[in-house]
Amino acid sequence: MSVLVYTESEQGKYKKSAFEVASYGSALAEKMGTGVSAIAFNAEDAGALGNYGVGKVLQVSDASFESFTAAKYAKAIAAAARQENATVVVLSSSANSKYLAPLLAVELEAGYASNVIALPDDVSSFKVKRNAFTNKAYAFTSISSDIKLVGVSNNSFGVTEKGGSATVESFAPDASADGVSVDGQDKAAGKVTIADADIVVSGGRGLKGPENWNMVEELADVLGAATACSKPVSDMGWRPHSEHVGQTGKPVASNLYIAIGISGAIQHLAGINASKVKVVINTDPEAPFFKAADYGVVGDAFSVVPQLIEKLKAFKAAG
Amino acid sequence: MKILVCISHVPDTTSKINFAEGDTKFDANGVQFVINPNDEFGLTRAMWFKEKQGASVDVINVGGAETEPTLRKALAIGADKAIRVNTEAKDGYQVAGELAKVAQDGGYDLIIGGRESIDYNGGMVPGMIAAMMGASFINNCIGLEVDGSSVTAIREIDGGKETVSTSLPLVVGGQKGIVEESDLRIPNMRGIMMARQKPLEVVEPSGTAVKSASVQFEKPAPKGAVKLVDPENLDELISLLHNEAKVI
Ligand SMILES: Cc1cc2nc3c(=O)[nH]c(=O)nc-3n(C[C@H](O)[C@H](O)[C@H](O)COP(=O)(O)OP(=O)(O)OC[C@H]3O[C@@H](n4cnc5c(N)ncnc54)[C@H](O)[C@@H]3O)c2cc1C
Ligand SMILES: Nc1ncnc2c1ncn2[C@@H]1O[C@H](COP(=O)(O)O)[C@@H](O)[C@H]1O
Question: Does residue B102's CB lie within 6 angstroms of at least one atom of ligand 2?
């Protein structure tokens, strides 16, 4: 019996979610009275997970894992789970983790709960709290299979530093191709993604046109935030599909979500409600978003946002 | 090409969500059910394959008789035949098992589902079907072309997209983008009339394993009132975000 966590990295660096799943896995292992190991692919500082309670890291150093394909990764994680005798496998809620999780579940004949936001109260009934109905409610799901697969919702559990150290073992899973090959990628380099961002700045139809997105990007730059948009904005082609958030778009679970010129339709709110703190900037005090937000500014984005950028720059400069 | 589109029957996106029986069951009272939006995009792409490449398109749901109006709507949009696996959907694993069996026995080449259903947000059924059938799997699919048995597709990834290639048999988790919003079809009178004549087969479940159960529900605590900041005093907003919310 043990817990295995799948920790994601990008260009050799662990993602923040890697430390979060490590923290979750380690707290869970403690409850179960067992240990936690991790599988990491081409991570430079593999042992860094020790700080979050991981005892052993299975380090895969193999260039054929540079490009992500779900079946190949699922097979490798399953092999690690078998070697470690894992009864629980923990992963994140990134698009890639959600892609491979169902394949891994079938491989391990494991029940899978996604969007999990807390530890199970007791490990025998293994009932986990998860976001459901697109953040309109929580479901408590109990997993009854021998092996259990838990997908932790980003930014829900947090990161706990423990100051421990981990042993690093090399691990060489089968890396044969999986039937789907990646021919090319089109990804904004050096930009924070919505899934990984602590802060998301989002614009709606109130911004009138794509030419006005400069200020949204500048505000995002100052805050180190990702940019997002409402559905009509991506439908009209003002912004790419990958920025559309909401019930039918990408889910947002950031620490701070800033909505500019977005009315706050139920389908929009559902998808972003898992964010901790919400700020709305809108000319219309009756906009439904004000009922869902923590902080609000009733005002014209074209005057509020540039001012906010200047003030934030001053605030950042003052440290 | 034989296409099977998996249709999840979910509360309309505007629905208020309530629970019954001591918060142990979803309360369907007064809720309008629709085709899961992600599946509607996939179904529309399937209609394109039907019209342009002569594919056959069947739709399927695992659920009780209450889901039949949703399947009829898919028939009205243009699917040839509907199948309902007559059992309560308990978890993704069980549903995927039933769907994989029908897909395999029926010799389907392309199985289209949605990235996730907007009710339980499992995000697992299509991937599980693929793994159970030994078919290829593409999730978050926002573009799909089939030429003979070779497939090229576009997949949304965090922060962008990628182009992938594979071959049939294939399972797809679709979403908005696989067709555009403006391509979605509202069933017309003729479609609705024709749907009444189309076959809706009810098949008994094979009884696949269930590995989890949603046993209790809870609604989020009501939100406190918003704190309004004067647009002429944005320093206060920065101070609140820094000192009170501690997010910047
Ligand atoms: C099945 C279905 C699924 C959907 N899924 C999603 C989804 O996933 N995500 C999503 O976002 N939507 C979704 N929608 C659409 C949703 O219902 C709304 O139509 C949409 O969110 C509105 O976008 P908006 O707020 O940008 O635009 P609008 O509703 O037009 O709001 C614009 C806002 O900008 C404000 N404004 C105008 N000028 C200014 C200014 N100068 N400064 C500041 N504010 C200004 C206005 O007061 C208004 O509140 C879905 C709808 C359906 C039917
Ligand atoms: N009961 C069901 N019957 C048919 N298809 C389903 C069912 N449940 C889920 N699906 C399909 O699987 C996709 C993902 O659902 P889920 O894994 O439940 O989030 C949906 O978009 C549907 O295409």
Answer: no
In A33-94, which ranges are continuous DSSP H helix? 70-83
pLDDT class of A178 with cuts at 50, 70, 90: confident
Stretch B187-211: mean pLDDT, rounded?
Answer: 96
Cβ-nearest to B238 among A193, A198, A312: A312
What is the CA angle B38-B44-B46, rounded to 5?
105
**B208-242 burial string, b = 16+ CB within 10 Å, else e?**
bebbbbbebbeeeeeeeebeebebeebeebbebbe
In contact, A152 and A24? CB cutoff 8 Å: yes
Q: Left if phi > 0, otherwise alpha if psi is -120 to 50, otherwise beta: which for A132? A: beta
Phi, psi (rounded to 5 degrees) for A74: -60, -40
The C-alpha atoms of residue B73 and residue A206 are separated, in whole angstroms, by 34
Distance CA A52, CA A287 (A): 42
Q: What is the pLDDT of residue A191?
A: 84
**Cα–Cα nearest to A130, from A110, A157, A95:** A157
Is the CB of residue B127 below 6 angstroms from any atom belonging to ligand 2?
A: no
Under 8 Å between Cβ of B144 and B46: no
**Helices marked H in A43-148 — which ranges?**
70-83, 95-108
* pTM for the full predicted model: 0.96
Q: How far is the CA of B64 from the centre of ligand 2 (A)?
A: 14
